[in-house]
Design a protein that fits this description.
Length: about 290
Amino acid sequence: MRQWLVLAALFGAFGCGSGGADDQAGTGGAGGTGGGGTGGGAGTPVIGECPPVASPGALDNVTGKWAYLERFAQLAQAPAFPDPLPQTIVFVELLDISGAPNALVVEGEYCRHLVQDRQSLVTTVIPQAYIDSLPDFTRPATFTVGSDGVGTLSFPTFFEVFGATLTDLENEALPTEPADPRVVDQDNDMQPGVTIRLTGLVDGEIYVTSRKTTGFDAIAVSADRFEGLSQSGQMQTILATDPPSIKDLSPTSVRDPDECETTATLVRVDANADCDMINAQFDSLF
């Protein structure tokens, strides 16, 4: 039981296998490009089984600064354990949106990253060095107002790779060994890839590379807020662990089938807002 809780916290939080093929789920990201996408059209898009309550005519301009909250829910399942372990991965970003509605430019920076463990024996810790290593990014978006007057903000699929340098961010296989020349020590802690820590019942570290994928359609629920379901996901590989034995065992992690648990929320903030302000006001903003 003790070993399973450790492994579930480790692999469940970050969507990992023991090192071979990429697995869908988890967290991630840095330094990517984007493309594709949906949204707009004649009316408000259908957004899953739990759509937010739209506010027709709430806004007609999305340029400016926004605080963005991404929640990604997943389940970890070990072969010898009957029940999966649910966890929620959280990213908070500060976005500056500019440009024309059909060709928006989103410049962003990461403010916060955490794992909400739904058990208390092992805590997954995202070190500050991890967060600080996530570079600023630029991605496209569009804003449309449907025939029903509801505004939709669409972020097309966007890929970010963390802990490695890839030529093809979308399709190239992630490294699986520390000696792979594509691996980088992005958080500058003298370990390959990026470091994630466990505390509580057992202390340990894992060193990973990951590919984060994000995309969503969010609808205006007020003049200062968008809500929607997110198509977030991740592929991730483990390069090494401390203690080494952690790498030898690999529960499977999958996206939570309850799509209402994986969401995107944007809240308009003051033009002078920064990450310190967003982090300080996190509970009241979201």
